[in-house]
Design brief:
The complex is a heterodimer of chains A (about 240) and B (about 220). With about 240 residues, chain A is α/β, with parallel strands linked by helices. Chain A contains 9 helices and 10 strands. Chain A has a 5-stranded mixed β-sheet with strand order 2-1-3-10-4, with helices on both faces. In chain A, strands 7-6-8-5-9 form a 5-stranded mixed β-sheet. In chain A, α2 runs antiparallel to α9. Chain B has about 220 residues and is mainly α. Chain B contains 10 helices and no strands. Chain B is globular, with a radius of gyration of 19 Å. Classes of the chains: A alpha/beta (about 240), B mainly alpha (about 220). Chains A and B meet through α3 and β7 of A and α9 of B.
Chain lengths: ~240, ~220
């Protein structure tokens, strides 16, 4: 019993003097380390689907700021009184792209997805939790092909899982961000969702607590230096 | 079928088909492990136990590596028969069968061991074939343990999540079993939807545990 108590205490003390925690969308997993390095101060970053992270903040997770792949979960947090409205800002934009695995059909386009052979699958993020999935659903609904693709859409728990489905060749196509597909050798970007009315993915941040360092980080990301780092990873200007 | 009842019906179908597929080899294995003493017995014992001991993510990874579209066997199945298992209900059945197997074997094996060997000797001396021996002597004498094992196997198949998510994926209206639906609903924050399937699975599991404990006589009990 005493040993158990000791173990619990040890686990509880693991953190040490804690740096503020920023919860970031999975689609930012490549750029965040560079942003934190550019920022120059210690930060803990936790990744997840924006919708999942939103749930965690609402559930009381110790998170000081959020950087999500969509305005919706940020605005939800503001509406529920968890995020500070005055700190909300758009930090970058992104492109939704259709990718096919290596050796896949490079002539495939968004509009041609309903014509996929019946056994072939399309991977997108779980629309309720993954912004990339919600953008993909919007794109397909806009094209009038969402209903025709039912039963053939595999939902990934975050955008990295969606990318992995395509990289492993388990699906014929997948919808991810341009920044996810960039530099991945085993997938090909076949079309950017850029037609009039196509969803315009954005990166939106807000402070959750009044932690000064977390807020300074959001300022840094919005600053020219931060924007330069985002641009070097393929993100569009805020 | 509407999207609320689909996961319930699919889960029941997947568990039932899994049980039908896995029961014969599981019972045969339990009998062999209980009665035969052979060189690889310990190795087979360990192998059977693996899916029960390994994290479901390991089972799922193994299934994708072997039966995935670019997997060792998956590629052959696809090119030879046009058979693609990943992201299909059949994949959910395979995952569920694999995890149900050890639970059935490990529950049935002691029940068969408890049947006096002499009974089988008598049966054999009367000229019964091994199958007749099993069905007419062993099963009647150990049916409680066998049913308990099958009931537990069904419950385990019904509850399979990790390997199913990796191998069958979450395709609403096709592969979204109740455990997957609970996880998806939780991720989306739809607690009411999650609670519905939590309730259904809890009721079934409680019924299963009660049934199994009544069937499986405890030492000193009855």
């Amino acid at each position: 019993m005493r040993l158990l108590l000791l173990l619990v205490l040890l686990v509880g003390c693991g953190g040490g003097p804690s740096a503020p925690t920023v919860a970031a969308a999975t689609s930012l997993r490549n750029v965040m380390p560079a942003l934190v390095t550019g920022f120059g101060q210690d930060l803990t970053v936790t990744y997840g689907a924006s919708g999942t992270l939103r749930q965690q903040v609402e559930g009381g997770a110790p998170i000081d700021a959020v950087v999500f792949a969509s305005s919706m979960p940020v605005d939800d947090l503001i509406a529920s009184g968890h995020a500070v409205a005055a700190t909300r800002r758009r930090l970058a934009t992104n492109d939704l792209v259709l990718i096919v695995p290596e050796g896949g059909d490079a002539s495939l386009r968004w509009s041609g997805l309903p014509g996929l052979p019946v056994k072939e699958k399309l991977a997108i993020g779980e629309p309720g939790a993954v912004p990339a999935g919600r953008y993909a659903r919007e794109a397909l609904q806009g094209l009038g092909s969402w209903d025709a693709l039912q039963d053939r859409i595999v939902f990934g728990g975050d955008v990295a899982a969606v990318l992995a489905y395509a990289r492993r060749g388990e699906v014929a196509a997948a919808a991810v961000y341009a920044t996810d597909a960039a530099g991945i050798p085993d997938v090909t970007v076949v079309e950017v969702a850029a037609w009039p009315g196509a969803p315009r993915p954005e990166v939106v941040g807000a402070a959750i607590t009044d932690d000064a360092r977390a807020r300074a980080f959001l300022d840094f990301v919005a600053s020219p230096a931060g924007q330069k780092i985002l641009a070097s990873f393929g993100f569009g200007p805020a | 079928m509407d999207s609320t009842t689909f996961p319930i019906v699919l889960s029941m179908q997947v568990a039932a088909i899994s049980l039908a597929i896995v029961a014969p080899p599981a019972l045969a294995l339990a009998w062999i492990q209980a009665r035969r003493r052979y060189r690889l017995r310990t190795a087979v014992d360990a192998l059977v136990l693996l899916p029960l001991v390994l994290p479901p993510s390991v089972v799922g990874f193994f299934l994708v590596v072997v039966l995935g579209r670019r997997g060792i066997l998956g590629e052959v199945l696809d090119s030879a028969f046009g058979l693609r298992l990943v992201f299909t209900p059949a994949a959910a059945v395979i995952a569920s069968s694999l995890v149900a197997l050890p639970l059935i074997v490990k529950t049935v094996q002691p029940a068969i061991e408890a049947v006096p060997v002499e009974l089988e000797h008598v049966g054999r001396s009367l000229g019964l074939s091994p199958l007749q021996l099993f069905l007419r002597v062993t099963v009647p004498a150990s049916w409680r343990g066998i049913v308990a094992g099958l009931v537990l196997g069904f419950a385990r198949a019904l509850g399979e999540f990790g390997a199913t998510l990796m191998f069958a994926g979450n395709i609403p209206g096709r592969t979204n079993t109740m455990p997957l639906e609970i996880f998806a609903a939780y991720q989306v924050g739809d607690d009411r939807r999650a609670l519905l399937y939590v309730a259904v699975l809890t009721v079934i599991s409680v019924a299963v545990v009660v049934a199994a404990s009544r069937l499986n006589p405890q030492p000193g009990g009855r």
